[in-house]
TrEMBL record:
The gene is LOC101861903. Gene3D superfamilies: Periplasmic binding protein-like II. InterPro entries: Solute-binding_3/MltF_N. The keyword Signal applies. Residues 54-285 form the Solute-binding protein family 3/N-terminal domain. PANTHER family: AMINO-ACID-BINDING PROTEIN YXEM-RELATED (PTHR35936:SF19), MEMBRANE-BOUND LYTIC MUREIN TRANSGLYCOSYLASE F (PTHR35936). It comes from the Eukaryota. It comes from Aplysia californica. This is Uncharacterized protein LOC101861903.
Length: 563
């Protein structure tokens, strides 16, 4: 029996070797050489052994030669596919690479990149071959890089518009961006380029057509060769450190992949695999230099994460924002997600001793409106994240979500044209002589005025703040009822009116444990007076031009008559 098992074991090993396309990898620690020790890895097996051995699915769109593509026989092959196999073999993980649209990994909407549903839902462990950029780090984790990268500009043959990548100002050109590509608006900003119009292409054929028919002038992309178009010779860097496997935020994959990859790299077999790939797949992958030629920067990068991270069982609390609400949450000039909400989360989470992260998600992953009713979104219900920041706790939302205590007040005010030409008085009970304007999605609406026992006359409903301001300025409406605070064109009349019970809170899935730890930590933040000091500092950070609607100071709380 023992002999039989031993024999099977040998056969399994032998067949693995046969499967690894014709050359022998040296997996044994003693054969990995002194470079392993230099990189500080003693035993990749040991580090990986604490990880649960689920099957790991990696994803390819099948169109990236020589990294992962469908060969003439219809088989998915390429350097990325081989690398996944080899590293998984080293750490004894069962891994597969399957086909899926790349938008399952990342996609772009109005110049912001969001993590795709496949990665967020846990269908895939990771997406190999993605550039590690500042803005992607907002919402993804990455393994160590295993490829070098560069980004380039592509034009129609002959460069008819005479686009010059070295110029500082691209605003005369219509740029084209491939959905989810690292070569995006944030990268152009980091490169110090001025730019105007950027249009989005869903795929390469669409981008090609737009360049050829003149809809766009320049494609900014990570590609170095595009058949039928001219890739200009200049190269820029959108990535911080090359390309690695892109992971869901908080993923465990890097914890087993990195030790395995380091061992593979240090053994020299990584570079053998690169050379082989060049021969097998027709063009050479853009590999890292071999250990003996590696720059000190590369070696230190590979060293950086060598400290053994024990797999933490502690939950990573994920909060989301849309990333479009400056100065609450927005991508700064480097592409890093920043703002009031991020700073407040960091503060409260550290008081509570919780691990937290703020990532991006589209609004409808939090809440979906169907006619009159609000429903919870897919992302929140599927556990892509724990909570959505910046939501009012209203009675209709309490049906389907839980909320933390509020961290900002929200109240409506009436805004009028300078000088209040129609003599509108918010304190009066009868508004029937006046036209009042409000934005269609605002909670400062006719229902709110009814609850405030106001007699209303004509109500004008507009799509947003710009139109509302215009209506007041051109005299169509006497006053705009709104909770916007930072409107400089209009005069804000005294009087604060509350349309909901409390204020702006964090909205979590029904039954979530988040309010249970958040509320005490926030109460401590507030009661100590630190919250109000924080609020003042935040307002100063934005040049004093922006007022955050902070909660009243603890000592002033009881004086508030209208709460
Ligand atoms: C040019 O190509 C783009 C991308 O396919 C398409 O959306 C656009 O309608 C085309 N424009 C013209 C003028 O043909
Ligand atoms: C005033 O502005 C509103 C909102 O944009 C618009 O609907 C209306 O037609 C304008 N009226 C006049 C007289 O310009």
């Amino acid at each position: 029996m023992a002999i039989f098992q031993g024999l099977c074991f040998v056969l399994v090993l032998a067949s693995l070797c046969l499967c690894t396309h014709g050359y022998t990898l040296t997996y044994k620690t003693e054969l990995l050489g002194h470079k392993v020790m230099q990189l500080g890895i003693d035993d990749p097996w040991k580090e990986a052994s604490s990880i649960k051995k689920d099957v790991q699915i990696f994803v390819s769109d099948g169109k990236k030669k020589p990294y992962s593509f469908i060969n003439d026989d219809g088989v998915l092959v390429g350097f990325d596919v081989d690398l996944v196999k080899e590293v998984c073999l080293i750490v004894d993980m069962e891994c597969h690479t399957i086909l899926a649209p790349f938008t399952d990994c990342v996609f772009t909407d109005r110049n912001l990149d969001y993590a795709g549903s496949g990665l967020m839902s846990g269908w895939y462990a990771g997406c190999p071959g993605y550039e590690i950029t500042m803005d992607r780090m907002n919402e993804f984790d990455f393994t160590l890089p295993y490829l070098t990268t560069s980004d380039s500009f592509t034009v129609a043959p002959g460069n008819p518009k005479e686009f010059d990548p070295d110029a500082d100002d691209y605003s005369q050109f219509t740029l084209l961006h491939l959905t989810g590509a690292p070569s995006n608006a944030q990268c152009l900003t980091r490169l110090g380029k001025k730019f105007g119009n950027i249009i989005l292409a869903q795929n390469l054929p669409e981008a090609k057509e737009a360049l050829l028919n003149g809809t766009a002038d320049v494609l900014f992309s990570p590609r170095n060769r595009i058949y039928g178009l001219e890739v200009l010779p200049q190269r820029v860097q959108c990535s911080e450190a090359g390309a690695g496997i892109m992971l869901k935020k908080g993923s465990d994959v890097a914890k087993w992949w990195n030790p395995g990859f380091k061992a593979f790299y240090a053994s020299g077999n990584y570079n053998k695999l690169c050379q082989e790939a060049g021969l097998k797949y027709g063009s050479a992958p853009r590999c890292l230099d071999p250990p003996e030629l590696a720059s000190p920067e590369l070696l230190s990068l590979l060293m950086k994460e060598t400290k053994t991270e024990t797999v933490e069982k502690e939950h990573l609390w994920k909060f989301v924002v849309s990333g479009r609400v400056a100065p609450y949450s927005f991508l700064n000039e480097k592409g890093v997600l920043t703002g009031f909400t991020k700073a407040m989360l960091d503060n409260v989470c550290s008081r509570a001793g919780k691990k937290c992260t703020l990532i991006l998600a589209e609004v409808d992953e939090c809440t979906v409106r169907k006619g009159e009713l609000l429903f919870p979104g897919r992302g929140l219900m599927s556990g892509w994240f724990d909570a959505c920041t910046g939501y009012f706790n209203t009675p209709d939302r309490s049906n389907s979500w839980d909320f933390t205590s509020p961290y900002l007040v929200s109240f409506g005010t009436f805004k009028v044209a300078p000088g209040n030409p129609t003599g509108f008085d918010p304190a009066s009970y009868d508004f029937s002589e006046y036209t009042i304007v409000y934005a269609e999605t605002a909670i400062t609406n006719d229902h709110c005025l009814h609850r405030l026992h106001k007699k209303v006359g004509k109500m004008m409903i507009v799509t947003g703040p710009e139109e509302a301001q215009e209506a007041v300025l051109n005299g169509t409406a006497s006053a705009w009822f709104t909770k916007e605070l930072n409107i400089k064109t209009l005069e804000t009349l005294p009087g604060e009116f509350h349309c909901e019970n409390v204020g702006t809170s964090i909205m979590a899935k029904k039954g979530s444990q988040l309010p249970g730890w958040w509320n005490p930590a926030f109460a401590e933040f507030y009661d100590s007076g630190d919250y109000n000091r924080f609020c003042e500092e935040q307002s100063k950070m934005y040049g004093g031009k922006f007022t955050f609607p902070c909660l009243p100071k603890p000592e002033e709380k009881n004086r508030q008559t209208q709460f």
